[in-house]
């Protein structure tokens, strides 16, 4: 199974490390963290010295690495192996980095065991006006992200949420406090015979219950009738505003077997799923989703008695399949 590589970006002080701490405390997955910065980064009460390839093993199975961006591919090669030590990899970009450059480095990796897991932009809601003045490319970064976490939402300036959503131009925006977001929004669970065990404090459990699911929702779609490839491809290229992730299985007219379909932001990948049922089962996750509109769009992709599907239409879907 491919290991997702998630890029977490954000201006200085936005809360990137706080988000990482939260993920390490609340996720059952083995998380590899690559810190694209110099200085000292506190992760789960441990300090990672900022020298290339320094490694620190954590009690919950996480692996944290401080690394120069020039050595990123080498680090990915070391972490992302079929028998490797992690289930997911998070790259914390420098507060002064250009996020698309980090994404390009991930996409350019020659490692066959990784896949791009999305670009998350962490935004400081309490200092948003000042940050835009100090960091004039912030507006562009909002549009380039796959998901925006509006952190410190409890101290947000008036009107910030609406302004960020306007600037984001359809990218889902999830308000957070102290970086608390459900890991399931970012990572898929991994089945292991011996799951990693961890112990949360009572405070952790209370915070998890109160905050994790705020700000986003999911929409489910299922159908027994095959989908029209071209109409579903149109849905993929014109995904609704606020949709961050889609995952599941789709059954297409003219296909020999069902296909696994996943999206993160604008990225789409398709995989063979010969063991899946011959039906469509999809889950869509995002912020501010219009469930009725999404369901109507997908209903429109279902093949009807009047449809004629050309065998070549399937290419509009299989083009997303890695070779």
From TrEMBL:
Q: In which domain of life is the source organism classified?
A: Bacteria
Q: Which UniProt keywords apply?
A: Chaperone, Hydrolase, Nucleotide-binding
Catalytic activity line of the entry: GTP + H2O = GDP + phosphate + H(+)
Q: Which Pfam families match?
A: cobW, CobW_C
Q: Which InterPro entries match?
A: CobW-likC_sf, CobW-like_C, CobW/HypB/UreG_nucleotide-bd, P-loop_NTPase, Zinc-reg_GTPase_activator
Show where the CobW C-terminal domain sits: 216-302
| Family as reported in the entry's similarity comment | Belongs to the SIMIBI class G3E GTPase family. ZNG1 subfamily.
Name of the protein: GTPase, G3E family
- Organism of origin: Actinokineospora diospyrosa
High-level lineage: Bacteria, Bacillati, Actinomycetota, Actinomycetes, Pseudonocardiales
């Amino acid at each position: 199974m491919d290991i997702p590589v998630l890029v977490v970006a954000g201006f200085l002080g936005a809360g990137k490390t706080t988000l990482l701490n939260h993920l390490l405390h609340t996720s059952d997955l083995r998380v590899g963290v690559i810190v694209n910065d110099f200085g000292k980064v506190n992760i789960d009460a441990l300090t990672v010295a900022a020298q290339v390839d320094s490694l620190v093993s954590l009690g919950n199975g996480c692996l944290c690495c401080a690394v120069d961006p020039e050595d990123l591919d080498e680090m990915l090669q070391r972490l992302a192996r079929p028998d490797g030590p992690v289930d997911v990899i998070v790259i914390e970009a420098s507060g002064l980095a250009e996020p698309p450059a980090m994404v390009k480095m991930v996409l350019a990796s020659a490692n066959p065991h990784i896949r791009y897991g999305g670009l998350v932009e962490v935004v400081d809601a309490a200092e948003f006006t000042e940050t835009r003045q100090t960091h004039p490319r912030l507006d562009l970064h909002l549009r380039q992200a796959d998901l925006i976490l509006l952190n410190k939402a409890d101290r947000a300036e008036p009107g910030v949420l609406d302004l960020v959503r306007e600037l984001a131009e359809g990218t889902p925006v999830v308000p957070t406090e102290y970086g608390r977001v459900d890991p399931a929004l970012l990572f898929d669970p991994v089945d292991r015979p011996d799951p990693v065990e961890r112990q949360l404090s009572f405070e952790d459990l209370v915070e998890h219950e109160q905050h994790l699911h705020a700000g986003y929702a999911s929409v489910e779609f299922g159908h027994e009738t095959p989908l029209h490839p071209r109409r579903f491809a149109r849905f993929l290229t014109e995904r609704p505003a606020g949709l961050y992730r889609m995952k599941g299985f789709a059954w297409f007219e003219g296909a020999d077997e069902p296909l696994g379909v996943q999206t993160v932001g604008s990225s789409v990948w398709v995989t063979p799923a010969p063991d899946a049922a011959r039906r469509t089962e999809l889950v869509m996750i995002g912020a501010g989703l219009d469930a009725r509109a999404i369901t109507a769009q997908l209903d429109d992709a279902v093949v009807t008695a009047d449809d004629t599907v050309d065998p070549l239409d399937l290419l509009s879907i299989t083009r997303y399949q890695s070779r």
